[in-house]
Design a protein that fits this description.
By secondary structure, the chain is mostly helical. The chain contains 7 helices and 2 strands; from the N terminus they run ββααααααα. The chain has 2 domains: 44 residues, no CATH class; 117 residues.
Length: 165
């Protein structure tokens, strides 16, 4: 199955064969050639999608919480890397939005949803992640970019704990 990852297209990609892939195809697929999506027998299972999402939060994303702790002490140059903010905040909030709403979201869509849906305390880091993800060169809401890392880590940890069950 063709796919793209980190802006590179791979016609034989196999790295994302999971419930998310099948639900994305079922709900948002675009036929370029061949039968209509409605004529395909795409496997979708909402319970499997939600279980997969919770497992991903408890494994992959929980691991990132510890990784951010290590970055702060051992890799100070990475501590101010905007990629960390965008990847962690929008990545984890996409899963949180799925669990909260039952619908798949893009990273940007999930971030915009979260600005309104989660505690206002998290608006600055969500706004920053959305700004970075959009490629907006405008000013950061953080005067000191070092403040972003602990905020990113705390937001990530909060989402992982919130969606533990």
């Amino acid at each position: 199955m063709p796919g793209s990852r980190e802006a590179s297209f791979n016609p034989t990609a196999r790295f994302m064969l999971c419930p998310v892939t099948w639900h994305e195809l079922h709900e948002h697929g675009v036929v370029v050639r061949g039968p209509a999506l409605a004529d395909l027998d795409l496997w979708i299972d909402k319970a499997a999608l939600l279980d997969f999402t919770r497992t991903n939060l408890q494994t992959y994303w929980r691991g990132w919480v510890g990784s951010l702790d290590r970055v702060a002490t051992s890799e100070p140059d990475k501590a101010v890397d905007p990629w960390l903010v965008e990847w962690c905040v929008l990545g984890v909030v996409r899963l949180h939005a799925l669990l909260a709403t039952g619908a798949l979201h893009s990273k940007g869509g999930a971030g915009r949803w979260a600005v309104e849906a989660v505690d206002p305390r998290w608006r600055p880091i969500l706004t920053e992640a959305l700004r970075i993800g959009a490629g907006d060169p405008g000013p950061s809401p953080y005067a000191d970019l070092w403040e972003r890392l602990p905020e990113t880590r705390e937001f990530l940890a909060m989402i992982v704990e919130t969606d533990a069950t």
